[in-house]
Structures are given as C-alpha cells and as structure tokens.
Amino acid sequence: MLAKLIVYCAYYLKSADGYRRAKLFFYDLLENSHSRKKKYFDATMIGLLILSVIFLIYDIEHEDSKMGGYFELAILMVFIVEYLVRGWIYSDTYKVIIEEYEKALYLNLNFNLLRVFRKAFVRDIEYITSPFAIIDILAILPSYRPLAILRIFIIFRLFKLFRYSNSAKLFADALASKRFELMTLLIFTCFLVFIASVSIYMFEYQATDSGIHNLFDAFYWTIVTLATVGFGDITPQTTGGRWVTIFLILASLGVLSFFTSILIAAFSEKMLSVRESRTYAELDRYDNFIIICGFGRVGQEIARHLHNDRQKFLIIDRVPARIDLAKKRGYLAIESDASNNEVLINAGICRGASAILCITGDDVINVYVTLTSRHLNKNLRIISRANRHDNVNKLYQAGADNVIRPFEIAGLLAAEFVGQPVAFEAISGILHNQTETVMESVLVSEKSPLDNQKIGQLDLQQRKLTLLGVISDNPIHLKHKNKYQVNQQHFYFNPEVDFILRHGDMLVLLGRKYGIDHFRDQVEQRRLFSRHPK
C-alpha cells in the first residue's frame, strides 16, 4: 500500500504543472547561467556575503551587538534555504521512483522500495559531498555562536563567491586545468619543506641563541624562507644551518618561478574563453540578432550593411586574422568552429537568434552548419551560400530557407546588363550606398491593373524604373527561363517582355524611392477606382 502511494505521488509530481514551473523558476534563479534572474540573484548574494563577513568580524569585538545577531540570523536562513533548494534541484527523487517502477513492470519483477530509497540516497550523497555543497555547509557553521572555534570557517563564506562570480569561476577553472602540474609542484614543495625543516632542526636545536626550539619552529622558519619573506625573527647560528638556508633560498626561486609559469600558462590558455564569455554575455542582452558564419568577402559586406542598419549580429570564423578585423570594426566576433553544436548553442541559436547566415567559402561546411542549425532550432531562418550549382539542392535538403549563389548572380548581372549602364549603375549604387537608388517590391494583388499585364506594357523605362525580376509561385510561369528557386517560390530574373503577370506575383524594382512609391500609389488608385466606379 505504501509503495503504491509513493508511486502515485511520483506520477502526480511528474504531471503537476505547478511543481514543474516552480522547479524551473528556481533552476533559472540558481543554476541557469543564461538567465537574468541568476545574475540579479548572484549580485545580491555577493553583497550579502561581504556584509556577513563584515558583521561577523565586527561581532568578534562586540559580542553583545543585537543588530549583528539579527542580521546574522537572516543571512543564516538565506544560506540554509539556498542549500536545501539546490539539493532539491539536483535530486529528482520522483524520477528515480518512476524509473525503478517502470523497470520492474517491464521485467515483471517486484517493485523494491528499499532499492529506490537507496538509489535516491546515493544521489543525495553525491550532492552533499560535492565541493560547492561542502563550501555551503562550512559557510553556515560560523553562525553557531556557542562554538567560537567554528568562526575560523568564516573564510569559507568567501569561497562561496566561486558560485556567483564568473571571474572567480574562471580563476578556479584555470587552476583546475593545471592540476597535474600543480600537484607535482606541491609534492616537490612538501618534500623540500620536510627536508629543510628536519635539517635546520638538527643543526640549530642545540645552538646558542638559536630561535629554533622544536620542529614547529623549524617548519615556520622553512615556510618563511621558502616564501622569500624573511621576517628575520629566526636566523641560523651554525654553519650547517646557514648552508641549509642558502640551498633553500635557491630552491625557493625555482619553486616560485615554476608556480608563476604555471599560472601564466593557465590564464593564457583561458584568455580565448574569457573573450568568448564576454561576447556571449553581450549577446544575452539582445532578444533579436543574426549569426554570421564566415567573415570572408561576402560576410564582410553583409556585416557592413547590417551594422549600418543598426542590426545586432555575431560573427563566427576560424581564421584569427578575420576575427581581428571584425573586432577592429567594432563587431561582436568569436574565433571558433561554427559547425560545433556547443558553439552555436552558446552563441544563442536556441534563445535569441532570429536568423543564421552560412556563408563560408566551403560548401561542405555550409551544408553541415545548415544541418546543425536546423536540428537545434526548427523555427530559425537559415540563409546559406552555395559556391557550386550542384550543392544548391543539398543545402535546401539540409534545411536552408534560402540559398544564395554570389558568383552566379554576379555573372548574370554582368551578362544581362551589358549595354544597360544605367541599370548597372543603379545596382552598384545600392550595393555601395552611393546613390538614392533603392530596390523594393510591388505586389500584384487581385483585381490589380497589373494582373494579366505583359511586362512590356508596364512602360517602366518612361517611369525611370528598372525591373530586376519577378517572384512568383504560379506554375504557369515555369516555362520561362532564368528562374531560380526561392523556398516554395521562383525568382524570374530579368523576364522577357511577353511575361504575363498574375495576381500574387511580386515585382522587384530598381529606382528612386519616390519613383517606386509613385508607381505603387498609381497602381493602388487604379485598383480602388476599378472596384468602386462612379
């Protein structure tokens, strides 16, 4: 009966929306590094930690301070609640119960409640014995006033800063990456301290006016000398003791040099991660930005236009020189491989990115990045670059919404507009922002005067407009040449004069903005006039 009740409660918690929302809220508050709630919480906890240390130090000299006692009690409650909530987030006991229950049903075995509790208990122990959980417990101990000796653990409250400060975490990660080197140095240092302490004790113990009377004095002298501090309160009086001092000083120079080189190497290796972290932190402030994979000639031109339009974007490229160029221009950029899932996730492909441009010079990379991006975010707009015509379908199959072919487009423009310098100059002006020429679209709506009209009847040259092409999904146009698939539609580049427009088509026009607006207004007025004749 008890087992059935526990299983029922486990399934109830699994399906309870309130329980799930509460757990998600506290996860965002305490663990989710991309959540704004966590940033505010971390800042608050850092302030409380510093204040608690200040009040505890003040309380050493003012034991009867009521204000310090009340504040310490409040801090203690916050620490205890945080510790329990973190344990609750870490351990999902109901999942363990459901897993064991379904396993027993599948294997036709008896449901062993004791095994479930044992498994849940082991998971709880994993959390309790984790480094951060131990630090949390040691940070709570100084609050127990009857045992004044426990106040020595006040220092562990400062170690809690590793939870809330990215800089502190970076320092810890840098040291952790050099565990082997640091452990080797520590073993050598311990061996050196032991040998030096015993040696100086043997030489100085019976010497006249010697400051070394026991092994602790020898150990203290060794540490002071090894650290090159040299207080001078204990000095060797014998020749043997002075030789030990000389060798220890020389050895200490090597130890300190080795330790310094380890730190420099660790932080040098972490500098790239630091730069990436700062870039990711900057992206967290944006809700709508574009990811540009590749910063070659095409990427540089796209980034320039996006920057001029005040659009937020992130550049990802593996070439250090290109990343340096992007940063010199003031763009957000990271030196990494865009085909890596973790890189795209950290770049915000699942939370803030509205589109991704896969525009490297390698079609294989573009296909792979497109495939990865579509897998990570089903609703993301993906625009990919194809350098070869036979890779276009592969990019669409990989999940691209649109595929651009820069070299083919450049060739078509050159071929189609030979002998038409005005049109070519208009396109060049748009690309380089040198003229007031714009490229805009005009919709052929139902019952529009453009419906069933031939291109040659529009008299666009007299209006000083140039037709770049027509976008349509009407199958009747498939017989025309120079068509290029755009998602579920086709783009008909520079269509012939006998091309007949249908409602739903879209004209892509080049010209002055007021000229295109005037043409659009005339079309709309004629459409309204035909619907409401006098």
TrEMBL record:
<dbReference type="InterPro" id="IPR003148">
    <property type="entry name" value="RCK_N"/>
</dbReference>
<feature type="transmembrane region" description="Helical">
    <location>
        <begin position="244"/>
        <end position="268"/>
    </location>
</feature>
<feature type="transmembrane region" description="Helical">
    <location>
        <begin position="182"/>
        <end position="203"/>
    </location>
</feature>
<feature type="transmembrane region" description="Helical">
    <location>
        <begin position="70"/>
        <end position="89"/>
    </location>
</feature>
<keyword id="KW-1133">Transmembrane helix</keyword>
<protein>
    <recommendedName>
        <fullName>BK channel</fullName>
    </recommendedName>
</protein>
<keyword id="KW-0812">Transmembrane</keyword>
<keyword id="KW-0472">Membrane</keyword>
<dbReference type="Pfam" id="PF00520">
    <property type="entry name" value="Ion_trans"/>
</dbReference>
<dbReference type="InterPro" id="IPR005821">
    <property type="entry name" value="Ion_trans_dom"/>
</dbReference>
<dbReference type="Pfam" id="PF02254">
    <property type="entry name" value="TrkA_N"/>
</dbReference>
<dbReference type="InterPro" id="IPR036721">
    <property type="entry name" value="RCK_C_sf"/>
</dbReference>
<feature type="domain" description="RCK N-terminal">
    <location>
        <begin position="287"/>
        <end position="404"/>
    </location>
</feature>
<feature type="transmembrane region" description="Helical">
    <location>
        <begin position="215"/>
        <end position="232"/>
    </location>
</feature>
<dbReference type="InterPro" id="IPR036291">
    <property type="entry name" value="NAD(P)-bd_dom_sf"/>
</dbReference>
<feature type="transmembrane region" description="Helical">
    <location>
        <begin position="40"/>
        <end position="58"/>
    </location>
</feature>
<dbReference type="InterPro" id="IPR050721">
    <property type="entry name" value="Trk_Ktr_HKT_K-transport"/>
</dbReference>
